[in-house]
Amino acid sequence: MGMKINNELPRPIELKNEYPLSKKIQEIKAERDREIRDIFTGESDRFVVIIGPCSADNEDSVCEYVNRLAKLNEQVSDKLMLIPRIYTNKPRTTGEGYKGMLHQPDPDKAPDLLAGIIAIRKMHIRAMEESHLTSADEMLYPENRSYLDDILSYEAIGARSVENQQHRLTASGMDIPIGMKNPTSGDLSVMLNSVIAAQMGHRFIYRGMDVTTEGNDLAHVILRGGVDKYGKTIPNYHYEDLWRLAQMYKEKDLKNPAVIVDANHSNSNKQYKEQTRIVSEVLHSRRYCPELKKLVKGVMIESYLVEGRQNIGGNMVYGQSITDPCIGWEDTVRLINKIAEDC
């Protein structure tokens, strides 16, 4: 056979019993979830900033980053909702390269998914306990989210997964905001179809069970830019793009229309320092048009302790990305303060 079983993994309930959330952390998450829901339903006008490393590759540096973010959050929480990115799965276009802490809890060592599911749960819990901030992750593998579904306050479905039926159906059973990125082609109709599917109830097979979902009224879109057939990037964060999307939303008559703008990836052509300018333009569009101010709920930013990126190997820089390049901490502080000032 072409498939070898390496380990039988524990069921999510078993891992949760071994690494449980304290009552205090459960209460913090419930309150954060309520505040985030209020933003996406329009009850609150706070602006969402989902920010952090491209991929969470080291528990200590990630937790240090989130702790710094928590201190910054104390200064801006009246206007902003800071949600740390703790992305433990990394999609790869060709299947090659570092796939995230779930696969490789130590980037220098061979993949170990049993150690990986333990490592990501422990890291998320530590970050919550130390910072009192609940986080965001990417739902790269729908069945794996059950190991973290009591922890996360936000999830995203990436450009390569947004057309997948299992992702859409799983999203329909979630009770937190789920952001559907536009596919790499940039097709907005595909992205909106994913939101339609996620907002409906479904019956399907999930982790060997026959399940029924009620639909997720907080499913929404994430604009991350696209790539045309010649490989040229096509940004979609400009005023005209946001306005056109607003009209498309009206045609679909979806619940709680919302947009998060991803300031990196194909919107910046991975020129990570462009994120500051892109965020500024998005905020300008919101100020110019009341309809867009209501629609655009936040931005997504890739940021870490040290700017840039590095390859996996000896003498690695603590707190620097090993996947896509990120802005550094000093620029992060300036950018968050500027967002709070402009909102």
Explained architecture:
This protein is of the alpha/beta class and 343 residues long. The mean pLDDT is 95. It is built from ten helices and 14 strands. α5 (165-171) packs across α6, α6 packs across α7 (239-252) and α8 (274-288) runs parallel beside α10 (329-342). The strands form four sheets. Strands 2-1-12-11-8-5-4-3 form an eight-stranded parallel sheet, with helices on both faces. β6 (203-206) and β7 (209-212) form a beta hairpin. The protein is 38% helix and 16% strand.
Structural key phrases:
8-stranded parallel β-sheet; two-stranded antiparallel sheet; 14 strands; alpha/beta
Quick overview of this protein structure:
By secondary structure, this protein is of the alpha/beta class. The protein contains 10 helices and 14 strands.
Give the CA-based shape.
globular
Task: Please give the share of residues in helix.
Answer: 25-40%
Structural category is alpha/beta
Mean pLDDT: 95
Order of helices and strands: HHEHEHEEHEHEEEEEHEHHEEEH
Strand sequence of the main sheet, in spatial order?
2-1-12-11-8-5-4-3
**Uncertain segments:** none
Q: Estimate the strand proportion.
A: 15-25%
Oligomeric state: single chain
Distance between the termini: 57 Å
Largest sheet: 8 strands, parallel
Q: List the total number of helices.
A: 10
Q: What's the total count of β strands? A: 14
Rg estimate, integer Å: 19 Å
